[in-house]
Design goal:
With 330 residues, the chain is of the alpha/beta class. The protein has one domain: Bacterial extracellular solute-binding protein, family 7 (D-Maltodextrin-Binding Protein, domain 2). 48% of the residues lie in helices and 18% in strands. The chain contains twelve helices and eleven strands. The protein has a five-stranded mixed beta sheet with strand order 2-1-3-10-4, with helices on both faces. The termini are far apart. The structure holds D-malate (MLT). D-malate binds next to loops.
């Protein structure tokens, strides 16, 4: 008996156990549930499905995803909270509700900060994107896998074409759950009400809301052309849609698998961004064909009307961050 308690014996058993458990861990199999606000053919669906395909390939079939479309797991804010609490595995979500958790994320609700896709990508792919992702990790308990996007947002409504901000007077406009977005649309002249994404189609259909704003690919994906007559190319905000994972779940993977997950997301990122831009181009024509009146207003008066919103929220977001975003070289 004594020999089994000897130090060399115990060390041998310990080493074998560690070796066994790390080998077993490296072979972990797992299906990751992923929440999406939109459907499989949307800019979000294309990115998430590419991520799943790459993850499965890189892990030789051990790691797979199960997408849950149209917010079937809950509205965006609930999904972000759920990931933070470790009860939802992963998801792609607009940054719109994130300013409620981390002030710096209100940056993405400030109007007319990013001029074009190149400007937004350069900023997000810089150390600023990394810092924001770290804030999300620290304060929301979620791991950012890739800065995917919803795209530039435009107004739709059922009342009239927007040639100037005063055309919004008397219009009931839905915003995302963001104080900055409420201020923006009030500054433009609308009556602004925050509302979760899952309620928007019905609110527009029933006339509770007259107006909303989203990228063209989203407007098409959820058939807003059925309940909105006017599409106004206001391009007022660039909307990221980061692909995220519960930090607890991410940390439960071995280091090798964490690297695979990040690699799969980074391979999917340019595919997603390119598809998003391609859909944006395609749907401008298609939404007109489907009966929407498309207006491209002069944006100067819109920019002017929302200047006070940037001045008001700059200190909360951080003046340095706002300046860095506006002036980021691209
Ligand atoms: C919204 O308007 O709430 C979002 O843009 C929905 C989404 O993330 O697709």
């Amino acid at each position: 008996m004594r020999q089994f308690n000897s130090l060399p014996f115990r060390l041998t058993v310990l080493t074998a156990a560690i070796g066994l458990s790390s080998a077993a861990f490296a072979q972990q199999e797992r299906t990751i549930d992923v929440s999406l606000p939109l459907g499989p053919d949307s800019q979000q669906g294309i990115g998430v499905l590419k991520f799943g395909e790459e993850l499965e390939r890189l892990s030789e079939g051990r790691l797979t995803i199960e997408p849950h479309y149209d917010n079937a797991l809950g509205a965006e804010r609930e999904v972000i909270e759920g990931m933070g609490l470790g009860i939802i595995d992963a998801g792609i979500a607009s940054t719109g509700p994130m300013g409620g958790f981390v002030d710096e994320f209100l940056l993405f609700d400030l109007p007319y900060i990013f001029e074009d896709h190149g400007h937004a990508y350069a900023f997000l792919d810089s150390e600023y994107g990394d810092q924001l992702a770290q804030l999300a990790e620290d304060q929301m308990n979620v791991k950012f896998l890739a800065w995917m996007e919803n795209g530039f947002r435009h107004n739709t409504n059922s009342v009239r074409a927007l040639e100037q901000p005063s055309d919004l007077e008397g219009i009931n406009h839905r915003t995302q759950e963001s104080r900055v977005q409420v201020d923006t649309w009030e500054a433009l002249g609308a009556n602004a009400t925050p509302m979760a994404w899952t309620e928007v189609y019905t609110a527009l259909q029933q006339g509770v809301m007259d107006s909303q704003e989203n990228p063209l690919a989203t407007i098409y994906d959820v058939n807003f052309y059925e309940v909105q007559d006017y599409l106004n190319i206001t391009q007022h905000v660039y909307s990221p849609a980061p692909l995220m994972m519960s930090l607890d779940l991410f940390n439960s993977f071995s280091e090798d698998d964490q690297a695979l997950i990040l690699e799969a997301a980074q391979i999917a990122l340019p595919v997603q961004r390119e598809a998003s831009q391609e859909l944006e181009q395609r749907y401008k024509g298609e939404l007109a064909d489907l009966g929407m009146t498309v207006t491209e207003p002069d944006l100067a008066p819109f920019r002017e009307a929302v200047r006070p919103v940037i001045a008001k929220w700059g200190p909360t977001v951080g003046e340095d961050l706002v300046d860095a975003a506006i002036n980021f070289e691209h």
